[in-house]
Design a protein that fits this description.
CATH architecture of the largest domain: Up-down Bundle
Order of helices and strands: HHHHHHHHHEEHEEH
Largest sheet: 4 strands, antiparallel
Number of helices: 11
CATH class of the largest domain: Mainly Alpha
Structural class: alpha+beta
Strand order of the largest sheet: 2-1-3-4
Strand content: 5-15%
Length: 411
């Protein structure tokens, strides 16, 4: 359930170290709050006056305020880190998209790329913010509280230790179910995004041929599939949240009854019983928070992996060619240039000779290769055969920075 890819982000180690320090301090404050409150109640039960116990009261209030200060600092730290990381990812993604060119956009769909760049990065920001905080708190606070519970009463500590893995196991089972549904939801969302963009692009053509109503039904079916998958994810999320809350509450209730019986029978003193009873909800709180927010991070996780997959795409090497600004005597020659797609279609051998400032129209039937030729001229595709000569220099591809700076490409 923990995404290892998240820890490859720039600055993740530094933020983890800071969060560990914050949550270790917060664990000490939780322990101090519990010990102060348990001591205060025990002494008041023994007949001491409230005036004589002001030290424990001040200690409880100080620990309580300290916890809120730590929570505020933790929130500010993670908000800043998540925002900066999301901005950096968006810049890297846009830079990579411009380097890879329109071929990648055509493969994944314009709607999907636009949604990923805008909403997807925002979901990644939320994912980073939630997961780092919940993960570190779950790894530190329960361990430190369990040590104190063993010190107060080893039998109660043993019960708490045995219950914790059962909750984790149940959370993992529900987590896998939610992940499968969230993956289907994300796939449906990609289809819906592409359908929407395609409909906007072709609305004039669809209207002209009288197909706009028929196409709207296709969009409606896609949106219905997305709605149903979303509701399915929400059902699993609500069920798992309810189940985990129920089991953790039941565990605390059973522990309270167990402590009460031992207290009545005289096998346990009031101070350790109160201390364990106060620490028990704090012991289960991190895993409850992690489980509750896990479903909220699933879309962010899918978006994060989609962004990383694009960032890992190899960029074709640029030839080291120095080109001048296009002049009246500049020439571009394509001799028997061909291109072969993986799915089988290809661009037939093309011969072009362009010089100076000309106006050239590329005309052909649908599927003749107009877009492929434009992508070749823009350097976004690399010819499978043939030669290209520009300004007297022979190159294998037009993926040349000096050349692409002089091009305006509008799909």
């Amino acid at each position: 359930m923990i995404d290892r890819l998240l820890f490859t982000l720039k600055g993740s180690k530094q933020i983890m170290i800071k969060l560990v320090g914050f949550y270790v301090l917060q664990a000490f404050l939780i322990i101090g709050q519990a010990i102060s409150l348990a001591s205060l109640l025990t002494n008041l039960w023994a007949g001491h006056s409230l005036a004589s116990e002001w030290g424990w009261l001040v200690g409880f209030i100080s620990c309580f305020i300290g916890r809120h200060i730590i929570n505020w600092l933790d929130t500010v730290l993670l908000d800043n880190y998540a925002r900066k990381t999301a901005q950096h990812l968006r810049q890297e993604l846009l830079a990579k998209l411009f380097k890879l060119g329109p071929q990648l956009v055509q493969q994944q769909g314009t709607g999907n790329i636009v949604t990923l760049t805008l909403d997807g990065i925002s979901e990644v920001e939320n994912y980073i913010n939630l997961l780092f905080s919940k993960f570190v708190s779950m790894m530190i606070i329960p361990v430190m509280l369990l040590i104190v519970c063993f010190w107060l009463d080893w039998i109660s500590g043993l019960v708490m230790l045995l219950v914790y893995p059962l909750i984790i196991l149940f959370m993992i089972i529900l987590g896998y179910a939610a992940k499968a549904k969230a993956d289907r939801q994300y796939a449906n969302f990609q289809v819906l995004s592409n359908h929407f963009i395609d409909s906007l692009r072709g609305i004039d053509t669809l209207k002209y041929f009288g197909l706009s109503k028929r196409y709207s039904k296709s969009i409606f079916r896609s949106s219905e599939r997305f709605r149903k998958s979303t509701m399915s994810v929400i059902r699993v999320a609500m069920l798992s949240t309810f189940a985990l809350d129920f089991f953790t509450t039941l565990s605390i209730a059973v522990l309270a009854v167990f402590l009460g019986l031992r207290l009545i029978e005289g096998h346990l003193l009031l101070f350790p019983a109160l201390g364990i009873l106060i620490l028990a909800p704090e012991y289960f709180m991190p895993i409850r928070n992690f489980a509750n927010d896990y479903h909220a991070t699933l879309n962010g996780k899918n978006s994060f992996h989609a962004v990383e997959k694009i960032l890992q795409e190899e960029v074709p090497p640029e030839p080291h060619v120095d080109l001048k600004k296009w002049q009246a005597d500049s020439k571009l020659e394509l001799n028997n240039v061909e291109f072969q797609y993986e799915h089988g279609s290809q661009l037939a051998p093309v011969n072009i000779n362009l010089h100076g400032f000309q106006k050239v129209g590329i005309v052909g039937m649908s599927g003749a290769g107009k877009t492929t030729l434009i992508n070749l001229l823009g350097g976004f595709l690399h010819p499978t055969s043939g030669t290209i000569k520009i300004q007297g220099q022979t190159v294998k591809t037009l993926n040349i920075e000096d050349w692409q700076k002089q091009i305006i490409y509008i799909l």
